[in-house]
Specification:
312 residues; seven-stranded mixed beta sheet; 9 helices; 36% helix; globular
């Protein structure tokens, strides 16, 4: 499980599911809903690095609520980009990256070492939420960034997360937000509104992904109520924006192109001929109207963080 900005949508995730384009997790052309996280390592890293300004604002907000945490657990850490941001934001904390993918945790450990955090950075491999039973001591802050929606029984997972908090500890989950946008509604060719139609296909895929999870339970996504049901209190929610205006820098264009390619692979057969042709033009680096070259490409995303506190 990985961060996932987060389906073919990249942001719902890193993990990416909001429903946003480029979700870090993407199905194949056969509409499979299982995800090879290790194969997505570079995409997950590139996405989280691009979304770093959004994460920095979210962590700054958390820092005003969580003062001097001793242990921060990143549940569903993926390759550790956000885990390392926690180490940077909270210099007195030990950070533990938890994930079910050993290759992603290896990258997380290597990143922490490069950045000078190795002496207070650890990894724990195993499936959430059960693996949290292996923690040596409770967490002062437990973060699940677009990873909860990959667990079949989200209510039970939140209860398990809450049990691993120290008294007064904070649980923070990043779930929901708005669909990411890269392009104007009218591209100057094709039928306007392409991204909205891709959103609809992603939403259908996300529903299938949830339905296919082991032990899946349908749940109303009232996060404040679910956090309360887990025995936590003082719930708060806030959304954070990533705004990279046109003309997008090269690394943003590379992310847009990779995300659009994943969507083309996942949903190409579900698009009508006109939309398929539009996507193919957008992905053709020799076409002046492609995302590689057109001046109006941007990245605009909003992710929502929900927090609650364990009673002292």
């Amino acid at each position: 499980m990985a961060h996932h900005p987060h389906t073919p949508h990249a942001d719902q995730d890193p993990h990416g599911h909001g429903h946003s384009h480029g979700h870090p997790h993407g199905p194949g052309h056969d509409h499979r809903t299982d995800i090879d996280w290790a194969a997505m390592a570079q995409h997950l890293e590139a996405q989280a690095e691009l979304f770093t300004p959004l994460y920095e604002r979210a962590l700054s907000w958390l820092g005003r609520e969580v003062t001097e945490p001793g242990l921060i657990v990143d549940a569903g850490s993926g390759p550790g980009v956000v885990s390392c941001l926690f180490a940077e934001t909270f210099p007195g904390a030990r950070v533990l990256a938890v994930d079910g993918s050993e290759p992603l945790l290896q990258r997380a450990g290597e990143r922490a070492a490069r950045l000078g955090y190795a002496d207070r950075f650890g990894t724990l491999e195993g499936e959430l939420p059960d693996v949290l039973g292996e923690l040596d001591y409770p967490a002062d802050l437990l973060w699940a960034g677009r990873s909860l929606h990959h667990l079949g029984d989200q209510r039970a997972a939140l209860a398990a997360f809450a049990q691993r908090l120290s008294p007064g500890g904070t649980l923070a989950i990043m779930e929901g937000g708005l669909p990411t946008r890269f392009l104007p509604r009218d591209l100057g060719f094709g039928r306007p509104g392409l991204e909205a139609r891709l959103d609809a296909l992603e939403a259908e895929w996300f529903a299938r992904m949830r339905a296919d999870l082991p032990g899946t339970v349908a749940e109303t996504e009232d996060w404040a109520a679910l956090l309360g049901a887990a025995g936590l209190r003082h719930s708060r929610s806030r959304s954070f924006l990533l705004d990279l205006p046109a003309p997008a820098p090269d690394r943003a264009r590379a992310y847009v192109a990779a995300s659009l390619s994943r969507l083309r692979e996942a949903f190409g057969e579900d698009l009508d001929a006109d939309d398929r042709a539009t996507v193919d033009r957008l992905l053709d680096p020799d076409d002046a109207a492609s995302v590689h070259r057109r001046p109006d490409v941007f990245v605009l995303a909003a992710h929502t963080v929900h927090t609650a506190v364990r009673a002292v």
